[in-house]
Amino acid sequence: MNNIRVIVAGGGIGGLSLALSLHQAGISVRVYEAVREPAPLGIGINLQPTAVRELTELGLGTALATTGIATPRLNVCNKFGQLIHDEPRGLAAGYRWPQYSIHRGKLQLLLLRAARERIGDDNFRCGLKLTEFAQNDRRVRVVFFDRQSRSEVVDDADVLVGADGIHSAVRHRLYPTEGEPRFAQQMLWRAATEAAPFLDGQTMVIAGHFGQRIIVYPIGTASGGKMLINWICQKTVTDRAPPREDWNRRVEKEDVLAAFSTWKFPWLDLPILIKQSPDIYEFPLVDRDPVAAWSFGRVTLLGDAAHPMQPIGGQAGSQAILDARALTRALSETGDPVAALARYDGERRPAMNDIILRNRNLGPEAAMQLAEERAPNGFVHVNDVISRGEIDAITASFAAAAGVDVETVNNRPSYLSPE
Ligand SMILES: Cc1cc2nc3c(=O)[nH]c(=O)nc-3n(C[C@H](O)[C@H](O)[C@H](O)COP(=O)(O)OP(=O)(O)OC[C@H]3O[C@@H](n4cnc5c(N)ncnc54)[C@H](O)[C@@H]3O)c2cc1C
């Protein structure tokens, strides 16, 4: 137990994982969340084994297993649904922990329930939005705005962590001239639809190429033998200005169908899936340029506030959880908060900056683009188009850079719990 007190701005996946981790390490924490009543928002998200390991060490392994779908395989296909390569995932790939495909909102509420139970309701304060902060050599003073009562709440602590997402107010104060996120001229249309299972009912599929692709995977079961299937259609758009990122903005089915009406594969009829979807959401493909520092004295950034990345390779949520564990370890092993934040920055930022840039080039999914360039009309044998060696080089280089290869995840020491 040390005497450090931490304020976390943002109760998303990163902020809540941090609260749980700090509590586990005996460090006092209070979370401030801008939303008054957190609801299960979002659709699917992937939790990589490295993050599942951390949540398991926080005692949440069983809750995860009953909430998500353990993903055993990823199929990478061309735009005709032809298989380019498949790779085992999670336990099937030799990890000691599964990969889960899970509803983001359910994951957030699962973490929130656990955090409230452990840190106490009084230390999870909702409806309070960080507006400013100031630090001296002893404390950081943080101001929050309560939109309902139109009043301010002031709190102080040894450390402030901005876990407040891609539009982080903390980051904006550290980098006031940064501006809006960088739009990659692609739109994402996303939904979760109750439908008949495809393939073996567990496999995740990415199909298409850089300019147009789909990502489909089940995130839960539904009645009548159906599954809750998460799908994302992604397409380059050259004729639009970037819309403001809003995870909850709806779009008409017709817009998506117009672009994907021919995507009917022997194993999946995408137009039918689109037609069956009650709500479809639109989100621009955005990230931000890497920054030269996350930690400034007693203030640091975590998760999307620190490294907003394009959602390639299912890394954003998982890496936010890893940030939380690394920051907790630094705070519990380093008595001085400023030194702890500098250590966390040095440990995590270089690899995350690397992922941001790799994801702009399709990251681990680059094999799809090679297949499109070499065989735009499809292929008879995939080996005529792309070699196994090329595929292995693409996937291995990303996994090692992100620290998510089997060897590293299975054998690295635990961040906090002695095994
Ligand atoms: C509503 C929503 C839906 C999403 N849906 C998906 C999805 O379907 N698929 C996917 O892959 N990713 C989704 N994401 C993004 C995904 O959750 C993140 O990329 C990843 O989990 C990293 O989480 P994070 O905690 O860093 O950021 P986030 O999950 O964005 O959480 C940030 C939190 O900070 C709060 N906040 C913002 N500003 C302030 C402030 N000034 N003061 C206090 N609190 C503040 C927000 O309300 C939010 O709860 C969604 C995010 C949100 C907020």
Task: Describe the 3D structure.
32% of the residues lie in helices and 27% in strands. It is α/β, with parallel strands linked by helices and 419 residues long. The protein has a domain at 5-46 and 104-180 and 291-361: FAD/NAD(P)-binding domain (3-Layer(bba) Sandwich). Helix 2 crosses helix 8. The radius of gyration is 21 Å and the shape is globular. The structure holds flavin-adenine dinucleotide. Flavin-adenine dinucleotide (FAD) is lined by residues 9-15, 32-35, 41-43, 45, 104, 129-130, 163-165, 169, 247, 303-304, 311, 316-317, 320. The site of flavin-adenine dinucleotide has 29 residues, from helix 1, strand 2, strand 9 and helix 8.
Task: Summarize the structure in short.
By secondary structure, the chain is an alpha/beta fold.
Tally of helical segments:
12
Q: How many β-strand runs?
A: 20
Helix content: 25-40%
Structural class, by secondary structure, is alpha/beta
The CA-CA distance between the termini, in Å, is: 19 Å
Mean pLDDT: 92
Structure ligands? flavin-adenine dinucleotide
The CATH C-level name of the domain at 5-46 and 104-180 and 291-361 is Alpha Beta
CATH topology name of the domain at 5-46 and 104-180 and 291-361: FAD/NAD(P)-binding domain
Q: Profile the largest sheet.
A: 7 strands, mixed
List keywords for this structure.
419 residues, alpha/beta, FAD/NAD(P)-binding domain, 7-stranded mixed beta sheet, 5-stranded parallel beta sheet, 12 helices, 20 strands, 27% strand, binds flavin-adenine dinucleotide
Topology of helices and strands:
Blueprint: E1 5-9, H1 13-24, E2 28-33, E3 44-47, H2 49-57, H3 61-67, E4 69-70, E5 73-77, E6 83-88, E7 100-103, H4 104-119, E8 124-126, E9 128-135, E10 140-146, E11 151-157, E12 159-162, H5 169-174, E13 182-195, E14 204-208, E15 212-221, E16 227-236, H6 253-260, E17 264-265, E18 268-269, H7 270-276, E19 281-287, E20 299-301, H8 316-333, H9 337-359, H10 366-374, H11 388-402, H12 406-411
Parallel strand pairs: 1-2, 1-12, 2-8, 5-14, 12-20
Antiparallel strand pairs: 3-7, 4-7, 5-6, 9-10, 10-11, 13-16, 13-19, 14-15, 15-16, 17-18
Helix pairs in contact: 1-4, 1-8, 2-8, 6-7, 8-9
Bound molecules: flavin-adenine dinucleotide.
The site of flavin-adenine dinucleotide has 29 residues, from helix 1, strand 2, strand 9 and helix 8.
